């Protein structure tokens, strides 16, 4: 994304927060009674091949009467217009504000003819999230703000699903434009407190009780507009937003709903039957949410973001594409054609093109300044380190500030994570244990230190000493970002040294390289390839590499 140097600071912050070209994002959700500690949790992976991973901040501000806010399209940096500022806007860190409201998204597109053609739409999906965070104290208020904005100023994006959470509840809202008409049609459903949900580039709200005003909100013309455009002809009570405004091909079910299904199956056996939907063997859609058999904890949610379809029919480590080192990644494009037939590689939650991701916690038993935390990481979710940053933060650590996707930076968390991950993409089964040691140690330390740290922060909040609390949060954020970045810089160099030239040097359990009794490095191991790879070579080449018996 190109940013104009002349843009005001708050607009630069809003623009660089955007998941540029992020048509492949994943959101996982857990209500407060579905989580182990009572947190409302939302995850977000901003996936784009051209997105630099950074954390952003928009400070709270008072605005004079008549002040205007410029709106810039997130994906293109195109100026869309201006809207009036309210008297006050809230502190926003990444995708969470000071009231513990968190908003995430995934794009699904929908009918092409519903993309705005008026030429006057001002609000794109990214600005919609950012502006709502600046103006909302609860999830319900955020829904009202978002729907009011597109009604007044027009919607400039295609079909989107939004996760909208606060410390009490979480909603999924789906929205699409109206083509030549101003505004958007939308529906929002409250996820039960004891349920888990998710979306990944597919609309998922189908038949709901439209009379349940407490848990379902929707545009007044949602059904009438669908009828007028010929998208729906049944009874109102049978209306399905997902089916009216988008199609669900075998390709999208597998590549999109498959990611949500693999999260569900971790927590309830009931989800297993919906593999038939994902695999296009059945037309019975997967439900919007499930009641899990076990609670979702923070570490479990972080692990879910690292899912690579392990233990499923879509496991990416065993087919020919995985190679001899069982690499669970496939380079783009995903689809390919052989003998006139179209095929596809799997699209897992964890993917190489992620710019940044998070697991959010909104917690009602803590003051807002302490209760809202983003566990934030850059680059691939599988190899990133999730660092805790509180919604009261006002200074972004230098390692997570704005950078350049084309300029390597040894001080950048994003670049150090890429350095580690891109080495593992080629020798995955050998390197991932070394990565897990460092990653796991850091995350366990960060999680274990929260109770004591949050007791200190809570005491400061209850004493009204917000200045000290903010300074404390900023200082710890800087410390943790530096610690994680330094550790991965060391890890990247360790991987290069240990696995150079196809060898694997010997180390002790602490990763220290071993020498012989005379002080010279021990001779390295030669890992070679697995048996299946050698068998595949022989199958494809016959006797080409055969060593004939001596005569």
Please characterize this protein's 3D structure.
The chain is α+β, with helices and mostly antiparallel strands and 551 residues long. It has 14 helices and 21 strands. The strands form 6 sheets. Strands 16-14-1-2-19-20-21 form a 7-stranded antiparallel sheet. Strands 10-11-12-13-15 form a 5-stranded antiparallel sheet. Strand 17 and strand 18 form a beta hairpin. The protein is globular, with a radius of gyration of 25 Å. The termini are far apart. The N terminus is likely disordered.
Return the structural class.
alpha+beta
> What overall geometry do the principal axes of the alpha carbons give?
globular
Largest sheet: 7 strands, antiparallel
Strand-residue fraction?
15-25%
Ranges where pLDDT stays below 50 over 5 or more residues in a row are 1-22
Write the layout of secondary structure elements.
Elements: H1 9-16, E1 27-30, E2 40-47, E3 57-58, E4 61-62, E5 68-72, E6 79-84, E7 88-89, E8 92-93, E9 96-97, E10 102-109, H2 125-135, H3 139-153, E11 159-165, E12 170-178, E13 181-191, E14 196-199, E15 216-218, H4 222-228, H5 241-245, H6 250-267, H7 275-278, E16 289-290, H8 298-304, E17 335-338, E18 341-344, E19 354-362, H9 368-371, E20 373-378, E21 387-390, H10 413-424, H11 428-448, H12 450-462, H13 466-498, H14 531-541
Antiparallel strand pairs: 1-2, 1-14, 2-19, 3-8, 4-7, 5-6, 8-9, 10-11, 11-12, 12-13, 13-15, 14-16, 17-18, 19-20, 20-21
Helix pairs in contact: 2-3, 10-13, 11-13
